[in-house]
Design goal:
Helices cover about 70% and strands about 0% of the residues. It contains 9 helices and no strands. The longest helix has 27 residues. The chain is mainly α. It folds into 2 domains: about 55 residues, Orthogonal Bundle (Arc Repressor Mutant, subunit A); about 150 residues, Tetracycline Repressor, domain 2 (Orthogonal Bundle), CATH 1.10.357. It starts with 13 loop residues before the first helix and ends in a 12-residue tail after the last helix.
Length: about 220
Amino acid sequence: MVTSVAPDAQQLTTKGRATRDRIVRAAADLMFRHGAAGTSTPAVRDAAGVSSSQIYHYFADKDALTRAVIAHQTETILANQTALLGRLDSFEALKAWRDVVVQAERDLGYVGGCPLGSLSSEVSDHIPDARQALADGFTQWSGAIRGGLQHMIDRGVLRADADPERLSLAMLAALQGGLLLAQAQRSTAALEAGLDTIVESIRCYATEDVTDDPQ
């Protein structure tokens, strides 16, 4: 059993941080394709081109590596999503975001589902710290959606009585359910139906100035 304490990422040298990041990226790719249970330390070692001792230098155990993967996937998702959601100023922009999400799933060939959702169903009941990290990741994701909807309110596209908190949670739920069904059905039909339904629900809060906008 490894009992050493892994160094904090902020305390690493530039070279050490690069090695740690390479391990996390390799583990993230393997866990996305094979799941956490299907990803072994030797597989991560070979994919990252490091030794087992290097992995255990940066991560006390596989649970710690899994939490690092969750943080990495959250950061990657938010980097992509925030760039689009931060520019929401019309229903056309909202639909453009929807189209990007759908096309991304098609480009992946419907394999893997959501990087966070897939891990959630696998580790939430067995690794409490990982469950909390996933919950935090989803909270940040819904927060990014909420921020985009709030921007639409501030721009006068949505009425002030729209509830961006509730609508963002509904949007994230539709997105997660749609990605899960897309993985199983090898089709984006359910994903598109879920997102379109939420978009139409959001459109109910459109101000008079935009209610006649083309869909």
